[in-house]
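User: I'm putting together notes for a lab meeting next week and I want to include a structural view of one of the chains we've been expressing. I don't have a solved structure, so I'd like a prediction I can at least talk through. The sequence is below, exactly as it appears in our construct file.
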Amino acid sequence: MTENRQITKAVIPAAGLGTRFLPATKAMPKEMLPVVDRPAIQYVVAEAVRAGLQDVLMITGRSKRALEDHFDRVPGLEASLAAKGDDEKLALVNEATALGDIHFVRQIDPQGLGHAVLCAKRHVGDEAFAVLLGDDLIGEQESLLEEMMKVQIATGGSVVALMEVEPESISAYGCADVTEIDGEDYVKVNGLVEKPAPEDAPSNLAIIGRYVLSPKVFEVLEQTGPGRGGEIQLTDALETLAQDTTPGGGVYAVKFTGRRYDTGDKLSYLKAVVELACAREDLGSGLKPWLKEFAKEL
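Assistant: Thanks for the context. Below is the predicted structure for the 298-residue chain, given as C-alpha cells.
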C-alpha cells in the first residue's frame, strides 16, 4: 500500500431516502433540494473541486437519476438559451457540467454509510480519498478539506472533521475521544462511538460529514458487521482503525469552527437558504432589509 500520495479523488454518498423531508423527497432526491438556486449536491461537488479533487464518485441509489441528469449536458436547453443570446443563464446551466470528472455507482442495498463507502473501493483503489456527505454544506470561504488532506499526507492515517456541539445533542452524531498533539493543530483520535447517549459520550466533539481516509478503511469495512440500526457504520470501521498502529492505520481529527449547515435538518436547511441568499450580491441588498422588517413583526 502506497502512502503519502497527492489526494485527487472524492466520494459523495448520496443513496439515502431523505425521509426527514417528506413529502418533498417522495419523488425528488433530497440532494436535489434547492439552496437558493442550486441543488445542495452542487455545493458539495464544488467544494471538492475547490480542494483539488477533480475525480468525483457519487454513490447513488434507486430513484436518484436526477443527480446524474443535473451534472449532464442538456443540448436542447443550451441551444435554446444560446439562440436567445441569454449567456448568463447558459453559463449557470453549464456550471454543474463543468465542475469536474463525475462518476456514478449505485448502492444496490441500502446497508449504511460504511457500505456506501465500500462501494467506492474499485474506483478508489489503493489511494487516500475524501468523503463528503451531501447533507453537510461547508462555507465557501472555509479550507476544511485542504487542512484535512494535509493531515492525512503527514500522518498516513485517516482524518475526520470534528465540531463542538451541545452535550445534549451528541446522541445525533458520532462522537470522538481525542488527545492533543504537542506542536500540531490536529488531534489524535483514541476512539469513536456512534450516536452515544449524552451520559455515555466521551466528549462533545461530533463527527461532521467530511473525512479523508486511508485506503486501509476498505479492508476494515469488509470485516465490519452491521452496527447501530442494523447498518454497516463507517464510525465502527474508524474505531477499529483508531487502534491500528500499522501503516495506514491511526485516526486523526481537525476541529472545525467555521460555517456549516446540515441540510438534512429542516431548520438548518432554512438557515442555509437565508444566509447564503443574504451573502449574494444579487439578492442580499433586497433580502436583508426585508428580513429586518419581518423580524420586527415577530
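A couple of points you could mention at the meeting. The mean pLDDT is 90. The first strand starts at residue 9 and ends at 13.

User: Perfect, that's what I needed.
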